[in-house]
Design a protein that fits this description.
Chains A, B: InterPro entries: Alpha/beta_knot_MTases, MRM3-like_sub_bind, Ribosomal_eL30-like_sf, rRNA_Methyltransferase, SpoU_MeTrfase, SpoU_subst-bd, tRNA_m1G_MTases_N. The structure is a homodimer of 285-residue chains. With 285 residues, chain A is an alpha/beta fold. Chain A has ten helices and twelve strands. In chain A, the strands form three sheets. Chain A has a six-stranded parallel β-sheet with strand order 9-8-7-11-10-12, sandwiched between helices. In chain A, strands 3-6-4-5 form a four-stranded mixed β-sheet, with helices on both faces. Chain A has a two-stranded antiparallel ribbon with strand order 1-2. In chain A, strand 8, helix 7 and strand 9 form a beta-alpha-beta unit. In chain A, helix 6 packs parallel to helix 10.
Chain lengths: 285, 285
């Protein structure tokens, strides 16, 4: 474990800069709150004992872990102690609770924050069920959908268009660690995304209020991708054109009581739940 | 329509007090942000053109509607004008945009806020599918679950234990107006709630990670109630005791990838989606 000197320095991999990380006035680690920094450094911030533990379980190795001695000594410190046992001592750095708090996005940080390499992967060659997020903009929805996808057996999450960053602190928290458990892929344009999906033989489906097919009428046991659009705008223009020309099949969650739409994360969950039921139960009726 | 005098007064029904509502320094209408005031006055605040329109569509008559002339004159003012056509002129009061904003909980209010009677109802005698919220504490989850319930054909939402108030501005917004479209009932203790449900012949189900029965194995076409517990704690102690002694049947959404739980609103949606599928599709396999 490294010292508790006030001006502990850290050199991010691939960077020539020494960062002053524990000075209360200069927590430059906090730059990873910004997507641009995450993208350029290929690193993400993981806040709190639970999430850092999830990252380790997923096989990720932190470059740096800031831990506050106050949190270690607190009533809930045993989980944090157990976490430290699993870490290489040369990445752990003791820092004041204030310093950890400043590095974090959360209002009530839990005394630990880690820097880990961002696990963005290429789309696996074999995919049976994919969730495609097309411009999902709310970090809570993004994280919740990834959590649901991991839980319900989705093989890959594909993020296309103007999606919020899954690796933002808020989306990562909403994923409850699931971001580390399901392969996620950031692609470029919708066209590129569609070609990646079609090359793997996936049939494409998207929610469309005017569709004739109910979501439970789709044979989800066949290789499939569910496309979920943005909360405010729905599908991107390019994806909508593919829907109009039948490249994507529109499906409908039948709605009652004059309700016009569902929350995006809820709509995705209902369809993925039906896909799971068919795949595990072996029927589609 | 009433005047734009700076010190417009309003006497809430059943109250002796004249309220100064349009003074920028004294927006006492804002007291309805607090549950205690909503409970004592039996009134709720409805913010924004869309939600006020939803309230009217549901047959609710506002006591008071504050509208800002600036919003009426703005590019998006036509929907607001259309809304005003539907209102009795003696409840509409022009007020400065600042005054409307101060009355609202939203950061970006849409120039209109209404006071309406809170439509809390007794549990209907005939219920085929109920959603029971047992201590749901997050207003976003509360509103989202009510929106989902209305959309998927739930007959009644029952709120028991330490639930957040469905009529708080944030929960009401998350419900996207669905709070006005599905009967909702606040009950007292779990025991009272259970007796109300059982008196209507409803079979009780609740998510329980250790249960043997998958959620799709339940015959949802029979009169049923799904109980969803709090995000952090799950079911209340009293409901958990009923689960342990078999009065509530535990059901399980099978989870993969080491994910331990789902977001409460997502879990509720997946089960209600399956209930809807069975009820509309006429099968439970």
């Amino acid at each position: 474990m490294r010292s508790t000197e006030a001006f502990e320095l850290w050199r991010p991999p691939g960077s020539g800069d020494l960062l002053d990380i524990t000075s209360p006035t200069n927590p430059r680690i906090k730059t990873l709150h910004k997507r641009k920094s995450r993208d350029s450094e290929g690193r993400v911030l993981v806040e709190g004992c639970r999430l850092v533990t999830d990252a380790l379980k997923a096989g990720l190795s932190p470059d740096l872990v800031l831990v506050s001695p106050e949190a270690l000594a607190s009533p809930g410190g045993s989980a944090l102690s157990a976490l430290l046992q699993r870490l290489s001592s040369d990445v752990v750095c003791l820092a004041s609770g204030d310093c950890v708090a400043r590095a974090c996005d959360t209002v009530s940080p839990q005394g630990v924050v880690a820097v880990v390499a961002r696990p963005l992967l290429p789309l696996p060659e074999t995919v049976r069920l994919a969730l495609v997020l097309d411009g999902v903009s709310d970090p809570g929805n993004m994280g919740t959908m990834v959590r649901t996808a991991a839980a319900l057996g989705v093989d890959a999450v594909v993020m296309t268009g103007a999606c919020v960053d899954l690796w933002s602190p808020k989306a990562l928290r909403a994923s409850m660690g699931a971001a580390f458990r399901v392969p996620s892929v950031a692609t470029g344009t919708w066209r590129e995304t569609r070609e990646l999906l079609q090359a793997r033989g996936l049939a494409l489906y998207a929610a469309d209020g005017g569709a004739a097919t109910a979501h439970w009428e789709v044979p989800w046991s066949k290789p499939s991708a569910l496309v979920v659009g943005s909360e405010a705008e729905g599908l991107s223009q390019a994806a909508r054109e593919d829907l109009d020309r039948g490249v994507i099949t529109g499906i409908r969650i039948p709605l009652s009581n004059g309700v016009e739409s569902l929350n995006a994360a809820v709509a995705g969950a209902i369809v993925l739940g039906e896909a799971q039921r068919q795949r595990q139960h072996g029927v589609n009726t």
